[in-house]
Specification:
2 copies of one chain form a homodimer.
Chain A: E1 2-9, E2 15-17, H1 20-26, E3 29-34, E4 40-44, H2 45-55, H3 67-78, E5 81-84, E6 90-92, H4 95-100, E7 106-113, E8 115-119, H5 121-146
Antiparallel strand pairs in A: 1-7, 2-6, 3-4, 3-5, 4-8, 7-8
The structure holds a DNA duplex.
Chain lengths: 147, 147
DNA sequence: TATCAAGTGGGAAAAAGTGGGAAACAGGTG
DNA sequence: CACCTGTTTCCCACTTTTTCCCACTTGATA
């Protein structure tokens, strides 16, 4: 399971090294996608195939016939990339994804169960504060939903 | 799976090189059709036969009986072309398709699961912004539908 | 303090993308 | 039917980007 928080640099060639702790779990190829709340998601291949199956077309109909589905798929797939982890554990973050998450020379790498998230580190710091404050009330809410 | 976003030039001879990542999947011949939302669709032969099966007489009814379907299919099939990928991975985009998608010297190539889309790059940039804003609500909506 | 592991940076080789010339082809015209 | 003209196709060459590899730095550890 992927847990913890790290801050790593993104060098001039858009390379970012993955924390050693995560490398085994992630494997040789990962998928980077636009995330929600202004970050990037990093999935293992296995995770990604689950996600894409669930959110993608569905085999029955043509996914491009429905406008909502087109929009969602273009966002989801069009801005995703599969990236090979290099021999010393770095990934390459394409420019268009860097821009999307507002990444400059550094980024925060967050382990969230079975995916990573990459955040602009300042944004992450803010988000953390906010999330911390809401934790108790959210716990109640989520707890309630399941019953 | 076709994912990711690239910007390539369309040269004076209407040639556009396909991103290396896509070439294996696409094979030697592709089908280019007018797309939806002012772009072009590019299908593999395999994918195209699925599409045409589903749009065509397909499973249940004769497609030409419905006026809407006739119109849609005339547009889609009538303006489709099959194009051979040249020895160094380029395709030829006919003038009438260029005009349809408002393509000039460059175009954005987007991988959307099992098809490519070719966009006027400025239009794509705009579309992306819009799609990004909608992403979270669409995620909720589509996520809900599947359960 | 020497050593090792993790992370960072940079140079050289390889690959991808782009552009253009010449051959091949088609189509029209004298 | 030969000829001319314009288009398409094929091939080669250049430029830029990416990839691969090696080396340095830092910080923790024995």
């Amino acid at each position: 399971m992927l847990i913890g928080e790290y801050t790593h640099t993104i060098d001039s060639k858009n390379r970012m090294s993955l924390p050693v702790k995560f490398r085994k779990v992630l494997g040789k190829i990962v998928i980077i996608t636009p995330g929600l709340d202004n970050c990037l998601f990093v999935f293992t291949l296995a995770e990604w195939s689950k996600v894409s199956k669930k959110l993608g077309s569905g085999d029955e109909e043509l996914s491009f016939l429905k406008s909502d589905q087109r929009t969602f798929n273009r966002n989801m797939f069009g801005q995703a990339v599969d990236v090979e982890v290099d021999s010393i554990g770095r990934i390459l973050i394409p420019d268009f994804l860097k821009e999307l998450a507002d990444l400059k020379n550094t980024g925060a790498i967050i382990g969230v169960q079975d995916r990573l998230e990459i955040w602009n580190d300042k944004v992450w710091q803010e988000y953390k504060k906010m999330a911390g404050k809401q934790a108790e009330s959210l716990a109640e809410k989520l707890g309630g939903q399941k019953e």
